[in-house]
Design goal:
Length: about 210
């Protein structure tokens, strides 16, 4: 089947992307790993001993970064609708975390503990209709924020990918209600033309 010009352009860009090449060389599952590395270097979200919940974790690029840092004293619980190959030090729960059974599984894996950090690199399946995709992406990050409010320890941190557009400003205001400090990051590994940014909340008010 002939590729459209858009998908060919994307494929060429992807193949020649320095972060894609670097991820392959470094053994990371995703170029997104470098986004979290940069954010954590700036904002110190997690450290040895942290309990981290990774939402929308597949293929595992973020969990790969978190697990070695939190170490044996910490824990990583990852969840995604898609399957994810296992990672040492990561408990993976496959399913939709908004469904009660999956949510309960996450809570039982936390073992009545609270999380220090909730991270989300979730994005919706894109339809190509910008307005629809924007509403879908905002809905997902609202769900991630709800989860963070339910499981974070007071003082905990949150980091979620958000696409700028309809609903974005309101979302940032909503995050500010629950965190002492809110920052917006655009890591170097984010493609310049992408509308994605990462909203970071620190000091969960509980």
């Amino acid at each position: 089947m002939a590729r459209s010009k858009t998908s060919k352009k994307w494929m060429d860009e992807h193949v020649n992307d320095p972060y894609v090449k670097k991820a392959q060389a470094d053994g990371y599952r995703s170029r997104a790993s470098y986004k979290l590395i940069e954010i954590n270097e700036k904002d110190k979200l997690f450290r040895p001993g942290s309990v981290v919940l990774d939402l929308g974790s597949a293929p595992g690029g973020w969990s790969q970064i978190v697990a070695p840092i939190v170490g044996e004293a910490g824990r990583v619980i990852a969840s995604d609708i898609l399957a994810m190959d296992s990672i040492i030090g990561v408990s993976f729960i496959q399913g939709d975390f908004t469904e009660e059974a999956v949510y309960e599984q996450i809570l039982s894996t936390l073992d009545n503990d609270k999380a220090d950090v909730v991270v989300s690199d979730m994005a919706p399946n894109l339809s190509g209709v910008n307005t629809t995709d924007q509403y879908s992406s905002i809905y997902l990050v609202e769900l991630a924020l709800d989860m963070a409010r339910n499981v974070l320890k007071p003082g905990g941190a949150f980091c979620a990918k958000v696409f700028q557009g309809v609903g974005y400003e309101e979302y940032v205001k909503d995050v500010r209600k629950s965190f002492d400090k809110v920052l917006v990051r655009k890591p170097a590994a984010s493609r310049p033309r992408s509308r994605e940014v990462y909203v970071v909340g620190k000091g969960f008010k509980g």
